[in-house]
Write a structure and sequence with these properties.
about 240 residues, alpha/beta, TIM Barrel, 8-stranded parallel beta barrel, about 15% strand, globular
């Protein structure tokens, strides 16, 4: 679990102009940004270059999920863009996860950190039942995560609800990226398994992915700074 917990702002915006505006308004309060499907499909690789040129780190959240050969090649392609953190989907299975990890290892210093998405924070137990997954959500998520780490994947994307159990089972080394973060009193939107920044730190999160509470704030820089202060306070209290 490298370093102190850190905010990643989710640039869930429609185009480059909106992304540039968000980064400009947030300023120096945040140095790490997530580029997901919406923005990447709209703008392609140049959006990563734009963020890197601004001195930001990039979490490319494409949730790669395909046959092993295709995912391995995609990992190599994503590395050429200069992303720092990259997602694959644990649901792709053991062979796919191993192929992703091996492709990353071959890249040397150009290698992005690879994390595996376990169970989306928009899903709950009822959703799993509709997909004919009968085991409890917690058990399902932990099983996917343990498999991914055993295949050489660097860390996991999981809700705060599972993070503490992952820490107990996997120790301090794997990165844990926790989306679905909402400051107390914020609307949850389309997320079903959410938690506060303080709860994420206590659970052992490495990175807290936060979008709307910062992007939609009247003063995004102040909102980001307030959340960072909350994280720092809890981190200090827990000796992290």
């Amino acid at each position: 679990m490298a370093g102190k917990p850190e905010i990643i702002v989710a640039l869930d915006v429609p185009d480059a102009e909106a992304a540039k505006s968000a980064v400009r308004r947030i300023g120096k309060a945040v140095s790490f940004y997530k580029v997901g499907l919406e923005l990447f499909v709209a703008e392609g690789p140049p959006i990563i270059g734009l963020l890197k040129d601004a001195g930001k780190r990039v979490f490319l959240d494409l949730k790669l999920h395909d046959i092993p050969r295709t995912v391995a090649r995609s990992v190599r392609s994503c590395a050429r863009y200069g992303c720092d953190l990259l997602t694959v989907h644990a649901g792709g299975g053991r062979d796919m996860l191993k192929a992703a990890a091996e492709a990353g290892a071959e890249l040397g210093s150009r290698r992005p950190v690879i994390v595996a998405v376990t169970t989306l924070t928009s899903l709950n137990q009822n959703d799993l039942h509709e997909m004919n997954i009968s085991r409890p959500l917690q058990e399902h998520t932990l099983s996917l995560g343990e498999m991914a780490v055993s295949c050489g994947i660097d860390g996991l994307v999981c809700s705060v609800w599972e993070a503490s159990d992952f820490r107990k089972r996997l120790g301090a080394k794997p990165l844990l990226v926790t989306p679905g973060i909402r400051p107390a009193g914020e609307a949850v939107g389309d997320q079903k398994r959410v938690a506060t920044p303080a709860a994420a730190v206590q659970a052992g999160a490495s990175y807290l992915v936060i979008g709307r509470p910062i992007l939609e704030a009247a003063d995004p820089a102040a909102a980001a700074a307030a959340i960072a202060a909350e994280i720092a306070g809890v981190t200090s209290a827990f000796g992290r």
